[in-house]
Amino acid sequence: MSSDKPSYPVAVRRTVQRSFHDHTFDDHFEWLRDKDSDEVRAHLDLENEYAEAVTAHLQPLRENIYGEIKGRTQETDMSVPSRNGDWWYFARTVEGGAHQIFCRIPASDVGDTELAWTPPTVEPGVHLPGEQTLLDANAASEAHDFYALGSFSVSEDGTRLAWSEDTAGDERFTVYLKDLTTGELLADRITQTSYGAFLTPDASELIYTVVDDAGGRGASTGT
Predict the structure, then answer these.
(1) What confidence tens digit (pLDDT) does each residue in 37-84 have?
(2) How far lies 164's CA from each of 49, 177, 179, 198, in Å?
(3) Torsions phi, psi of 155, nearest 5?
(4) CATH of 78-222, one of 1.20.1250.20, 3.40.50.720, 2.130.10.120, 3.40.50.620
(5) Cα–Cα distance between 21 and 130 in angstroms, integer?
(6) What is the pLDDT of residues 113-126, one digit of tens each?
(7) Is residue 146 a contact partner of residue 173, using CB atoms and an 8 Å limit?
(8) What is the pTM of this model?
């Protein structure tokens, strides 16, 4: 009896012995760890083709679900402003954009505590007086096939911004720093970090987590 179901790709077994804590075992698929190998990429392409083939009948359902979710999502939107120091911080989303635009406006102190801590009204598509764009993640993502933020931190005094980006999809982020008083992108770069990077209140130090070759993590502090 014939079947139209495609055959699944079988990875080649190549025995490599690995030892940990005085225990040695055979790893038949060690070679698949090499993400830059043309052979590994070719095998992953076969895996993807197989997955597409065996789930092809679900395509109409996927499109219906996606359409329903999109129809219920307000793409042009904004977050509720949150005050930190002398600024109100919020994020905007725009139709067609997959990422947020991080903004802030100056907080006014008019001697009325309740008024000073009442969030400003932010409307979709309406630019507020004094509004600053700290990071447009949509624009930053345009040069990459993959883009994800791992952190976004503004110092309490509002003078420095630290954020991290993953542009490979391997959850290894590069941290960038910006001087918000001048708008200058600083030359400092910290690579191979995990999720989360935080500026101290006075922006004198940055706390982050590094990732080793095995995916382990360890906290670090930079000045």
Answers:
(1) 999 999 999 999 999 999 999 999 999 998 898 777 766 777 889 999
(2) 32, 9, 15, 10
(3) -65, 155
(4) 2.130.10.120
(5) 60
(6) 887 888 889 888 88
(7) no
(8) 0.72
Residue identified by tokens 């979709």 is 124
Give the start-to-end residue ranges of the domains of the chain: 16-71, 78-222
Q: Name residue 46's amino acid.
A: L
Per the structure block, which two tokens stand in for 38? 């043309």
Residue that is written with structure tokens 């490599």 in the block: 16
